[in-house]
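call fold(seq) -> tokens
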Amino acid sequence: MKKTQTYATHKRIVPGFHFLASSLLFLGAIAAIVNIFRHPPYTGGFVSAVLLEVMFIAGLLLFWYARQFALRAQDRAIRAEENLRHYVLTGKLLDARLSMAQTIALRFAPDEEFPELAGKAAVENMSSEEIKKAVVQWRADHHRA
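ret:
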């Protein structure tokens, strides 16, 4: 059974990814920089030390962009889902003034609160945090990447 989700507990942290992998890549990049300074140019090991640093930088970039690409794709899916949900509930698409962040925050509102909160968010230009805090009955999202 999934834990009850609230505003305070809705953020998803994957310790192996967010803490372990990021720390290992960061520490490895720092160690590789130190290794470059231990092997001055035109001495044995300098090219290997530089290549090692390049690999760690590539790993950090891959780590960052893999997460960003997954979240971007998921954000687009959420926008489509919430637009469809709004259409089903009201017969109208979401207000075009709503930003991606606002639409994503609205996914936590249950059907009973969703149309009114969506309208209020568009008119008052509420931040995503304000929208989440305005939700009375939290609608959990346990499938966030």
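Helices lie at 15-38, 46-90, 100-106, 114-124, 128-134.
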